[in-house]
Amino acid sequence: MSKLTLGSYPHLLGFEQLERLLERSAKAGNEGYPPYNIEQTSDFSYRITLAVAGFAEEDLSIIIEDRQLVIRGRQRDDSEGRIFLHRGIAARQFQRMFVLADGVEVGEAIMENGLLHVDLTRAMPETVVQTINIRKG
User: Fold this and answer.
1) Mind listing the domains of the chain with CATH numbers?
2) 3-state class of 47 per DSSP?
3) 65 neighbors 28 (Cβ within 8 angstroms)
4) What number of CA atoms fall less than 13 Å from residue 88's CA on the CB side?
5) CA-to-CA distance for 29 and 5, rounded, in angstroms?
6) Plot region of 10 (φ>0 → left; ψ -120 to 50 → alpha; else → beta)
7) pTM for this predicted structure
8) d(CA 4, CA 8)
9) Residues 108, 87 contacting (CB under 8 angstroms)
């Protein structure tokens, strides 16, 4: 059984980048920490919410790199000199990646009650109708 690719469909021209995008998205890491939600807030906007309890704003970074939204968190280990009888809350780091489609822009990021909200908007593409003239050869 052979693997179907977008190149297998002769009417899909120029979609090789989409195939690479799907492969990259699959490799982006599917670990469960931190948990997150993605919600559609209007016809042209989205919100990603990550549960980042215990992280301060300076422990988090948000960057856009090669059409990927990368959110990283790195907590400082402040356990120096403390004696824990039980330690169920570990200082840990994370990286979450979200692949952005063309036209999706990252708006503001808001930290609220242990939740990090990142707002995204999608520009509506203009409908373009173009007539191609046929020359005699």
Assistant:
1) 32-78+88-125 (2.60.40.790)
2) strand
3) no
4) 1
5) 22
6) alpha
7) 0.73
8) 6
9) no
pLDDT of residue 4: 63
Round to whole Å and give the CA distance between 21 and 26: 9
Which pLDDT belongs to residue 56? Answer: 93
Considering just the CA atoms, what is the radius of gyration of the chain in Å? 21
Spatial CA neighbour of 34 closest among 116, 110, 132, 101: 116
Taking phi over 0 as left and psi of -120 to 50 as alpha, with beta for the rest, 14 belongs to: left
Distance CA(20)–CA(37), nearest Å, equals 25
* Digit-coded pLDDT (tens) for 77-120: 777 888 989 988 777 899 999 989 888 999 999 999 999 999 99
